[in-house]
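Bug #77: duplicate submission created two jobs. Keeping one. Sequence:
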Amino acid sequence: MTAADFAALLRAFAGAVARGDGEALAALFTPDGVYDDGFYGPRAGPDGIRSMLAEFHAAARGFRWDFLDPVCDGHTGYARYRFAYTSTLPGCAGTPVVFDGMSQFTFRDGRIVRYCEVFDRGVALVQLGFVPERISRTLRRYVPH
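Kept job's structure:
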């Protein structure tokens, strides 16, 4: 995976997410590929990736994902990002959310074998207007045991 290939993959990845195109997103992954989302957790294979993207689009609209400063050594790629959407969740429908994060991609044969990310979940939850108890309950799920 060259730097140019990685940049093209990031555009395809962000575009598929924004459009809600589960087929296009899943096609970027190996058949056993894993998308480990910071809110939805790991989803494996085309069916898992498609269903996760459907869940994204059931909870929000107007997605925008900008990848910044990508680097790739051919096997692993990293990029900072800014992710934005408008919530459609009950109680916070119409609320815009924006947060920054870091993505890691691992490749095999030019396709993604694993995607994972790091971001401050609390920033998104506060923007959604969640009460402190709900934020705490949500964030406790991510504390290592």
